[in-house]
């Protein structure tokens, strides 16, 4: 917050002097003191939120310095560097297209950060990715699309609500780029579908909102008009959801369009029979019940009754 207010004041009153200020601060990014590197990185990150850096031809210099902080030994510096790179989407959105590949590579590196016990770097990478995706060239994201989708999937069930929310929103945003990889990405949608539907019962409203968004985005890629219409009409942010009735109809469409998916959908649900969240734990067997109710006899043999009765994944 302090860096944000300082940056705002700098942008308003110290514009012409900013190049010199930035030049004098750059050496502190290599300081032996974590506190100095953190403070300067936070300041640069907030400065990148303003178009003033573009006007003063500072963007490339600051972007290169933020990219260079990705190997910093201090986790907070790495996190703030990603925040700064993501802020380019609001400060200089027209430059994101030009530097898209470089910015996306930085975010993927952040997702793969090996020294991030609380996933703060990954969280910043996901938030920044969602901001950048509106401005990048499609060709720049295509080569990374599958890797990102697979990498963020475990966060859907994180104990941390902010990780659940950010990963699910990012997944929804990724679907905009799935056309050229339709079959490959459809598989990722199927992998996440049960989780997204169950987390409509998440205890955190912000996660429920994220799931609604992601499912609305997934709908057009699922090849089932009825399901797409349901997601668009019933999962609007301003509309309350009658979950049981909604899931009954969802399962009807799923079994009409993908009856061969029955066992796979059931197995994923079994995993949630022991969920820590009581509403999700209750939703999973209901989901299974509706699937079995709507599948035709020809596909019933897919169901392993012993496994289902025991509730073991």
UniProtKB/TrEMBL annotation:
Name the domain of life this protein comes from.
Eukaryota
The terms describing its cellular component in GO are: cytoplasm
A Pfam match: HEAT_MROH2B_C
Q: What range(s) does the Maestro/Maestro-like HEAT-repeats domain occupy?
A: 64-310
The name of this protein is MROH1 protein
Q: Per the UniProt entry, what species is this protein from, by scientific name?
A: Scopus umbretta
Q: Which gene is transcribed and translated to give this protein?
A: Mroh1_1
């Amino acid at each position: 917050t302090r860096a944000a207010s300082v940056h705002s004041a700098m942008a308003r009153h110290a514009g012409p002097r900013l190049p010199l200020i930035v030049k004098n601060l750059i050496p502190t990014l290599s300081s032996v003191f974590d506190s100095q590197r953190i403070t300067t990185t936070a300041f640069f990150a907030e400065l990148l939120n303003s178009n003033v850096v573009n006007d003063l031809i500072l963007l490339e210099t600051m972007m290169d310095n933020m990219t260079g902080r990705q190997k910093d030994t201090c986790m907070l510096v790495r996190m703030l560097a990603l925040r700064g790179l993501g802020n380019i989407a609001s400060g200089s959105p027209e430059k994101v297209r030009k530097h898209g590949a470089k910015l996306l590579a930085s975010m993927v590196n952040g997702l793969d950060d090996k020294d991030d016990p609380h996933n703060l770097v990954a969280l910043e990478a996901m938030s920044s990715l969602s901001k950048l995706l509106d401005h990048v060239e499609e060709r720049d994201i295509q080569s990374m699309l599958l890797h990102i989708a697979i990498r963020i999937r475990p966060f859907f069930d994180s104990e941390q609500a902010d990780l659940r929310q950010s990963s699910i929103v990012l997944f929804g945003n990724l679907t905009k780029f799935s056309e050229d990889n339709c079959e490959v990405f459809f598989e990722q949608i199927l992998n996440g579908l049960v989780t997204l539907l169950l987390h409509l019962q998440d205890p955190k409203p912000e996660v429920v909102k994220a799931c609604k968004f992601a499912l609305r985005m997934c709908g057009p890629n699922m090849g089932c008009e009825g399901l797409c219409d349901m997601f668009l009409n019933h999962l609007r942010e301003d509309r309350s959801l009658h979950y049981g009735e909604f899931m009954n109809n969802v399962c009807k469409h799923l079994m009409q369009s993908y009856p061969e998916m029955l066992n796979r959908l059931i197995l994923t649900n079994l995993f949630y029979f022991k969920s820590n969240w009581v509403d999700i734990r209750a939703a999973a067997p209901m989901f299974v019940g509706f699937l079995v109710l709507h599948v035709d006899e020809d596909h019933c043999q897919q169901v392993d009754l012993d496994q289902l009765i025991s509730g073991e994944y």
